[in-house]
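The following block was generated as part of the benchmark described in Methods. Ligand: manganese (II) ion.
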Amino acid sequence: MAVDHKRFLADLHKLREFGASGVGKGVIRPAYSDADIAARKWLAERMIGAGLAPHFDPVGNLFGLAEGTSLLMGSHSDSQPEGGWLDGALGVIAALEIARSCDRPISVVSFQDEEGRFGVTTGSAVWSGGLPLEHADGLTDGAGITFGAARSAMTDLSQGFVDPARFSGFIEMHIEQGPSLDASGDQIGVVTDIVGIRDMSITFQGQQNHAGTTPMHLRRDAFQALSLFNTRLNDRFRNVVTPQTVWTIGRVDLHPNASSIVPGRVRFSMQWRDGDADRLARMEEIIRATAQEVADQQGLVLEFGPLLGLEPVAMDTTLRTALENGAGRVAPGKWRKMPSGALHDATNLSRLMPVAMLFVPSINGISHDFAEDTAERDLVAGLDVLEHAVQALV
Ligand code: GLV
Ligand code: MN
Ligand code: MN
């Protein structure tokens, strides 16, 4: 067995062409977009070339199946609305290279909507049984399109759900998407745990009105409510969070979003992540109570969307040890164990089988941005670690 670094890098660049943004190495390939579906069809062809049987399931997850029992490897090939070329793509193409260079049974997967256009890691959440398909079908994206309607663009390809029992475990390689490895100069991170996440939308409904004639004390201004909520929340979290806890209001839909109108409604995303499920629950209480308090004080109506989430998970010891040994061989003295602050499909798969993850550095710690990148020597080092691990395992 010998991985082919050139072929691996060439395929990684080829995948980038689907939805290439024109800015740096950026990619716009959200789940079920034309670019995403075209990329999946191209991947299916590459899987055939690797001797695997391509298989699309009802939500658009693409598997390249080896015969019999196999080790599953991969990640996702959808992107954020503004994304980089490696987030997800790296793990899929690395898995493809391992599968075609290895004389042992390796299957490959590209999960659908890992980036959460509709939820949180939607494709693998449905496949793993963590999210019933009927619930997923009702989830909506920022424009109000349902998951059910979006996935219908791929149902003509569907061959039913794959039986997870055919896989002995799952290994996902990914870029770190944070600053740790880049800052320490390490080439490889072997993941110990993946944080948990909670995500829900919040709506403040006030009164739309004229921005010149409505006295300040009579306003029920949705933006002012959001602003107050954010300030109070940051203050109240102070005694609960750790330096590793993160929270984000990343999408704000202010209505009607015009300079001469007091905004009557704001709907926004509220997301928070931590490695401790109890802390996630405590933060939820604070979010709900603070939002209610602001709504009551300002005379607005408050509405919470469904709470989505994934629990924190630890990696499997056997798979992780194989990655650690591989890292020791490929990057002696230049690798470390580390938690993942980003979410990954591996979290869902841990319900079904042993899972482990490997990181390579993100230059300047940038990801979910067109500027996301990783040095070529690090991409290749990650592939080599996978190769060592697979040889030891399968
Ligand atoms: C996945 O992209 C995440 O948001 O962690
Ligand atoms: Mn990813
Ligand atoms: Mn991502």
